[in-house]
Design goal:
This protein is mainly beta. It is globular. Helix content is 1%, strand content 48%. It has an eight-stranded antiparallel beta sheet with strand order 4-26-29-38-31-32-33-34, with no helix packed on it.
């Protein structure tokens, strides 16, 4: 088979799946990007790239309980909101909000792969989405949703003076947030999101002579929005700017890919997209945000092949694995049974906020996930989760009973049940075509659950409508996460496969 050759053409999203609120910085020829993580632990996934298109997760910024406290009462879509990632004075700085405990905090690192420092808390910063920017005198300015601003000491978390309002975008526009402040040429630019993070989302910008303004809005605001269009990428906003070594400018932003009929259901959450930026009369002009990127000014290496199988042979889990609110070593680990992931139950079902769960984001519109489970004397399985009130699962118990369950709002149902020989079993879930009706009400997909014996013989148990695991149904800020869980006793998993599929 011929070796793939570098190309100047790439596709969007550049980081697919539930990776919202991207913030980016460049150091030399290396780019680094961080995203929101909400109720999941570890928090704030961080990525590296050399071409803005191919990204590799190198870690999670908040990977210790001392850095990230998510109490059991943390609601779904609570937790960690909207980081800002910057490089200044030889260090990486990340400021973020934990809306469920601790408020705004700052962590630093010399290596973005970690370890990151213990948090410095910033109780004097009153808003979410905090941004960090330094002027030529070394003063640090923190700008936050609202949009307000305050001088700030990032080493101590102290604010210097009282916060004040600077600019809040289009008069009357909802949710002025996600501010980022830049010195570009002779101006300071303040870029924000507005309109809410749904179909009305937009990006606007203003400029002024100093970090605190006064700010003059761009006459072409919003400089980016897909509201009132039928474009395949919607909800575009919450953006950050970066300049490449060749002098070109680029924007990373969040967007969604709705599928099906009306109103359109997005199931992967808000994803990270890339767009080119040019400058006219001192203002940024954002290029097309589509599923294909226009020709790039540099060669893009072929994407790294997806590691389809995790055999759980390492002492530590890969950084893509996330858990709900915490991950106690006594409940989750790969050391107890060599080559297996061992989960010890705590919550009694996926409806509970403290259920023991280890998952990865769904990153493709069509996929198949499989695992080999040994339920032992316990109960556990494979789930597709949006939150405690919206999830589907296939689970096995010690008696060889396999069942498919669905939780949709206030309704919880056993969809299918079958007896299989006791012992290790293969459980799987894959996307299928959207179920009837084939009209404006058509959903995005279906989820097909199957089970079989360890020798590879499997059969389908149930197909369920995927629209109920979408943001348009469930609400919130996250996307589907496919995971392994235990709800009784101790359950072991030998391997986990995740494979993208062609769209049905």
């Amino acid at each position: 088979m011929p070796t793939p050759q570098p190309s100047t053409v790439a596709t969007n999203p550049v980081i697919p799946g539930f990776h919202p609120d991207p913030s980016i910085c460049r150091v030399g020829e290396d780019y680094y990007l961080a995203c929101s993580s909400f109720e999941y632990f570890p928090g704030v996934p961080i990525f590296h790239s050399r071409d803005l298109v191919n990204w590799t997760q190198i870690g999670n910024v908040l990977d210790r309980p001392s850095q990230l406290r998510l109490p059991v009462e943390t609601s779904s879509s609570g937790g960690i909101y909207a980081p800002t990632l910057r490089h200044h004075d030889g260090r990486f700085w990340l400021m973020v909000t934990n809306v469920s405990g601790g408020g705004n905090l700052v962590v630093t690192a010399t290596d973005p792969a970690g370890p990151w420092s213990e948090p410095v808390h910033a109780p004097g910063v009153p808003g979410i989405d905090p941004d960090l920017a330094w002027d030529e005198k070394g003063n640090c300015w923190c700008t936050f949703a609202g949009v307000g601003q305050v001088r700030f000491n990032p080493y101590t978390g102290e604010t210097l003076g009282e916060p004040y309002r600077v600019w809040s975008g289009t008069p009357g526009a909802a949710a002025p947030e996600a501010p980022h402040l830049y010195r570009i040429g002779e101006y300071w630019y303040l870029m924000i999101a507005e309109g809410g993070t749904e179909r009305g989302h937009a990006v606007s910008i203003a400029r002024g002579p100093s970090p605190s303004g006064p700010f003059e809005p761009c006459p072409a605001n919003p400089i980016l929005t897909h509201r009132s269009t039928t474009k395949p990428v919607q909800n575009t906003g919450h953006a950050d700017l970066v300049q490449a070594p060749d002098g070109s400018w680029w924007m990373v932003l969040l967007g969604v890919r709705p599928q099906g009929g009306t109103p359109g259901w997005h199931v992967l959450g808000r994803e990270t997209f890339l767009a080119p930026v040019t400058w006219e009369d001192g203002w940024p002009v954002v290029g097309e945000v589509g599923l294909e990127l226009a020709e790039l000014p540099w060669q893009v290496s072929p994407p790294q092949p997806l590691a389809e199988r995790d055999d759980f042979d390492s002492a530590e889990l890969r950084p893509c694995w996330i858990s709900l609110r915490d991950r106690p070593a006594e409940l989750v680990g790969t050391k107890e049974r060599d080559g297996w992931l061992t989960l010890r139950a705590r919550g009694s079902s996926l409806d509970e906020p403290d259920v023991v769960f280890v998952g990865r984001r769904q990153q493709h519109l069509a996929f198949e996930a499989r695992t080999l489970i040994d339920p032992g004397t316990g109960t556990g399985g494979l789930a597709v989760r949006l939150d405690e009130r919206h999830h589907y699962a296939i689970e096995a118990d010690a008696d060889g009973r396999v069942r498919v369950t669905a939780r949709i709002g206030t309704v919880r149902s056993v969809v299918a049940e079958r007896a299989l020989p006791a012992g290790p079993l293969v459980l799987s879930v894959r996307t299928g075509p959207a179920p009837e009706p084939h009209d404006a009400r058509r959903g995005p997909d279906s989820l097909v659950f199957a089970a079989g014996t360890a020798d590879g013989t499997t059969s389908d148990l149930a197909s369920v409508d995927g629209r109920y695991l979408s943001t348009e149904v469930a609400g919130g800020f996250t996307g589907r996460v496919i995971g392994l869980y235990a709800t009784a006793g101790t359950v072991c998993f030998d391997w986990f496969d995740y494979e993208p599929l062609p769209r049905p």
